[in-house]
Design a protein that fits this description.
With about 325 residues, this protein is an alpha/beta fold. Helices cover about 25% and strands about 25% of the residues.
């Protein structure tokens, strides 16, 4: 994966040229931290999670999202759960979701959510599933959507699978083999169709992999990885899913590929916790900032950039299509 970190130039400040050098340095630093609107690709979309606080950070991120959508024309926005804090209350659907993103909703931008642990506190999220603006297809807590053009072989560019990780974790931890088998059976049916799409994405609330800092006595500054999901689903994704997006932890984290699958934690669109263990050997990059992701997809690569609540670039990178990676490794 090719990536770049945002940088700030250090310039000498001596003599009569110092003010000019300072201005040039500031301009260069701002340019280095500016996201790019003209990314090549056939499908542009947004990913954000843990947004529904109704507080100032959510509003700042929403403002930046609207400004960015006006430049790049996202086809949809994926929401990674905890869409309405604290308990998924129906009375806050407008003030913590609809009103916040109304400028984009009024433009016809589809939002497609998954359920977070806070959302299911209200009748297992049933009111949210039935509320059209959240984009649960057919009111289901797990669904798929497809997007992008078809290639010469009739293969559509992308498929996005939404999972309700709350249901999976409850079934696994509760020892309900019948429910786990039911969920696995339905997922495997969908995964058998992966070859029909150029790219396959999975999005859910709880991350398979997330690494958090620790306080004294080992108390963690976040939720961390979901071992139940790893145990049951990791092998299922090996040759069928390209990228996984999750929230739950309120920071940005990029993981090194696991069995060829790229994992992102993007849970900072409304709340933020300074807990990313960015020096963990499994972590490619981490940042404790409010953020959303802007992504541009083509047949052979996924370009992404992560943007903070001031419109500045946190991270940018590229993921080659898995077949290209395999070919490169074989060479």
């Amino acid at each position: 994966m090719n990536v770049s970190r945002r940088t700030i130039l250090k310039l000498p400040l001596a003599g009569a040229a110092a003010p000019l050098l300072l201005q040039q340095g500031i301009a260069a630093a701002k340019s280095a931290r500016a996201p790019q609107a003209d990314l090549p690709g056939e499908l542009r979309f947004c990913v954000m999670g843990d947004s529904g606080s109704g507080a100032a950070p959510q509003l700042r991120i929403a403002e930046q999202m609207k400004a960015w959508h006006d430049r790049v024309d996202w086809k949809h926005v994926l929401m990674l759960g905890d869409n309405v804090y604290e308990n998924g209350e129906t009375e806050y659907f407008d003030s913590r979701f609809v009103d916040v993103y109304r400028p984009m909703l009024d433009q016809g931008v589809p939002f497609h959510a998954t359920l977070g642990n806070h959302d299911v506190r209200n009748r297992d999220g049933r009111e949210m599933l039935a509320a059209e603006p959240f984009g649960f297809i057919d009111g289901a807590d797990e669904y798929e959507l497809t997007a992008g053009p078809e290639n010469a072989e009739g293969k559509q560019l992308a498929r996005f699978l939404c999972l309700n990780s709350n249901r999976w974790i409850d079934a696994i931890e509760g020892g309900s083999k019948a429910e786990v088998d039911r969920l696995l059976g339905r997922l495997r049916e969908r995964l058998r169709e992966s070859d029909r799409y150029g790219w396959n994405f999975l999005y859910l609330h709880h991350p398979f992999h997330s690494y958090v800092k620790k306080f004294f006595f080992g108390v963690e500054k976040g939720h961390g990885s979901s071992e139940p999901l790893q145990q049951v689903l990791e092998n299922e994704l090996r040759d069928t899913i390209d990228v996984v997006f999750a929230g739950h932890d309120h920071f940005y984290q990029e993981l090194k590929p696991v069995h060829g699958v790229h994992h992102f934690v993007a849970g900072g669109a409304g709340k933020m916790r300074k807990g990313s263990d960015s020096h963990h050997p499994a972590v490619e990059f981490g940042a404790d900032e409010y953020h959303f992701m802007d992504l541009s997809l083509s047949e052979d690569r996924l370009l992404f950039q992560t943007i903070n609540d001031e419109g500045e670039l946190i991270r940018t990178g590229e993921i080659p299509k898995r077949g290209r990676r395999a070919a490169a490794q074989a060479a």
